# Entry
Amino acid sequence: MEEPSLYSAPVQKPKARDLLKQSYAILKSDKELVLFPIYSAVFSVLGFIVVGGLYAGVRWGLMHGHQNRGVDYAFLFLLYVVSYYIVIYFNAGLAACVLYRFKGGDPTFAYGRSEAAKHRKSILGYALLAATVGLILNYVAERFRLAGRIVANILGAVWSVATIFIAPVLVTSDLPPLQAVKESAGIFKSTWGNTVKGTLGFGLIGILGVIVCIVPAVLGIAVGGAAPAFIGIIISALALIALSVILSTCSSIYRTALFHYATTKQVPAGFTPGLSAAVR
# Structure
């Protein structure tokens, strides 16, 4: 069956809940996809602990507790590199699996990791670039105080928007970091309507989900007593973790679907033709 053309007749734009349902349907068909944000979170925490431990060892072991801005910035840069590499690596693996699913394949977690590993040099290159940008913005925010924080926040938001498709770009090419960012920004430009709509829609759904998730904790505390409060808090905490993992995975699936359409001009299997409505 022929996929909808870029120049086909106008189609009805899907609502945010429809986009979430379609993304969740992909997740249900490949439940292993939730492992990517989980592994990303776990390794990010481990990376923070390792870098933090090294920093503490240098400052309190070699520098006897004295502060040195050069050392501080060096370890901040290292933390940025490690964090960006881990997050993009697993996001790239997830994107690879979703793209493979769109082609009719049956991806596994191992498949996603292997695809991300093939592009680890490109991912590292981007991590170094992103860490450099992050370090510069951090310096500007500290050096120029209020004005610096405002400028840093604005530039940081622009950078986040420009790199929103960086994971699928890196896992499907070996572009140098700057070209990869340019490619990601170009895809955002052609999909900005649906990208913004999906981001805001998923964010709103996330807020509503958080409200629902904290109900057990509120009820447990309202009932009174240590046991009900503890049980309620545990249930809410587990629900929030599950919500975070599912929404993060679905958001990545949705962005990958937009990337697929923007680069192939074909609506991926599992999504309605309305996905193309804001792609120009």
